[in-house]
Write a structure and sequence with these properties.
9-stranded mixed sheet; 5-stranded mixed sheet; 33% helix; globular
Amino acid sequence: MSSSTLPTKTESSPMKTEELPSAKKPRKDDDERVAHAARLLFKSPILSVPQAMICNDFTDAESKDRALQQRVRRLHSKLDKGLVNADTLLDVGKEYEDSYIPFADKARDFLTKSTDQFVCVKVCGEKLDEAGFVRLSKREAFGGKLVPGGSYYYTTNHSTLVAFTVGAKFKPGNGFKIIGGHTDSPRLIVKPLSKRTASGCVQLGVECYGGGLWYTWFDRDLGVSGRVLVRTIDEVTQKEKIEQHIISIHKPIARVSSLCIHLESAEERRAFKVNREEHLSPIIGTQKVLESTVGLQLNQFGEDGDAWKQGQEPALMSLIASELGIETKQICSFELGLFDCQPASLGGMKNEFLYSARLDNLATVHCALETIMDYSASEDLANDDMISLIACFDHEEVGSNSAQGAGSPVMSEAVERITDALSENPHSRDPETHASAIRKSFIFSVDQAHAVHPNYSGKHEKNHGPKMNAGVVIKTNQNQRYATNGVTGFFARELARRGDVKVPMQEFVVRSDCACGSTIGPVLSANTGIRTVDLGMPQLSMHSCREVMGIADLTHGLNLFKAFFKHFNELDNCMEG
């Protein structure tokens, strides 16, 4: 078929051709059919035809009609030159809304609720409970509790989550399909001794966690969330016990106020510099008001000689106690941080963007969670002989070296304990079985990627500039800041092609004159020996108090994860070596 023809249906013949209209005078009905053909060709809803042209992998997808691809490129050229009116693609926009916004709304709710790593893991656990997953205790043996076809989860430190489904045909020594992400994000954490006053104001002492863009935390309405330890009496044994409670107070109790321009020097106006110790302590009230309302409690916290209690701001302790329905004297410790109270929202002229805090990396956690829940209820599990697992770690933003970070034994223990629990003799470990499982396994290390910023496009390597709403990003760095190599990168691209819905893929390599960040990928691959690829959904404003990504990429990520769980084994079996 000639590149100047377009297939169209007639009653007398299944296909006929018509001449391409002049580029100077595009026919609207013809271009509408090309746009529709583009959607059919790529077998995936797209926001606009130009986005389909961004990734070679997407345009090189299997097709019986290469001429149609050329027609789509012609339309892309006309759109660039302004020869086609945007109304031509209104039906595409409608399809976009129907396909992407429902899942983005679910993500919006998840992100708003998940105010920190503790709350995130709690929210995930509640969703897994509803989906029929069985909660396990890491303190107890898994042997005798796992069965083929079952779905399970457990947590570490209430801030790291492992959830998995066992293929109905699983045998010990078979591999694991693992999606790894992280639950933490840069934020302001309340110091162990929180009490602080200055100039008649009551403040909280805070510490910066991770590499945040701290200037974005100024003039935001901040709530508080985290973990609280409560001393209580067991109703059965009448003995003292310590309970862990996860709280999230969606109330603007704190604010880091900026200095007005009138009091700034000329030098300070030219560059906004933040002293993290002196400038980031949020104000929670005035001494006159707070000390009059909670002053009677001042001595109660320290009556047992507890120096920790004496160092706490009484107003904060009172708020926590009220939230939990306990007395302030029962509070014996906490790990609290601040968060932006503004909920996640959709934005842009056509609602194509998701604006939210903590997209890095709770967007990944959301997609991974939805994937594992969906897969656990699918018919594909009946023919699966592997373990499908998600692992969402704490402390990625500070290097992963903790008891609950990716540098801990959490991942290796998961492979060993699950394999052993499903063996004929769960109390006897076979090193060969474990080694076989490792060699058959694969990790998707997924962390948000850097989209090209239109105002700073020179910051990207010119041939490796991911765009929002254009697909999942494969991250490569030869200095091992990412774990991707030629083979694991191929696996990601091939799985994107084999999925029920074709997933557009993009490539990212940092400029040679720029430093490169890292992920849990190199940490996991080095600690476990499991093949790993580093991936991410593109976003802007990473590590800001408020970030942005394209909602289409959420669905692209979900579809890629589904393809991984469904098609990895068949792809691995045809891979030499």
